[in-house]
Structures are given as structure tokens and as C-alpha cells.
Amino acid sequence: MVRGSKSRKKLKIGHHRRGISRFFQEFKIGDKVIIDIDPSSHDGMPHHRFQGKIGNIIEKRGNAYLVKVKDKFKEKIIIALPQHLRKLT
Q: pLDDT tens digits for 47-65?
């Protein structure tokens, strides 16, 4: 029996979130962001376990950002492209 990641409904997006403006976002070190995965772009996609988590930008690495996220009792560093991040307001 083959098991999938069962993330089909979790990563589904509506028509209101489509577009390319999220690809050109810029963040500064120390900004708080929400990990909001865009399933139409597979590059730089974090694991779906981190969908909706809040973290801090700690570094920019090429086009991607390093985000420090608290996962249960540990702090983890996630590498994600800007289309998978949303600034916390």
C-alpha cells in the first residue's frame, strides 16, 4: 500500500490568490512572516507541516530566505522562496 503525504486539501488555493506579485516580494532580516505555501510553484517549497507557521527572517540566501520557526519544542530553520512567504502585519 502506497501512502501519500495527504496534503491535497491543505495546499489547495482559490482563485483570489493567483498571480505573480508574490514572486517579487522583498523581506528584511528580522521581519515576521507566515509560511503560506503556493502549490503552483514547487521550487523552494517548505514541507507542508510548516503551513501557517509564523517565523522570523534570519538571512537571505540567493533568492531564498532562511526562516526560523518553532516546531513543538525545537527551533528549526526553513529555506523558502518568497512566493511561499507572507509578511505578518
A: 999 999 999 999 999 999 9
Q: Which CATH superfamily is domain 15-87 in?
A: Ribosomal protein L21 (2.30.30.70)
More confident residue, 22 or 46: 46
| 8 A C-beta contact, residue 67 and residue 80 | yes
Average pLDDT, the chain: 87
- Hey, what's the cell of 21? 506579485
Alpha carbons within 13 A on the beta-carbon side of 17: 14
**Cell 482559490, located at residue:** 14
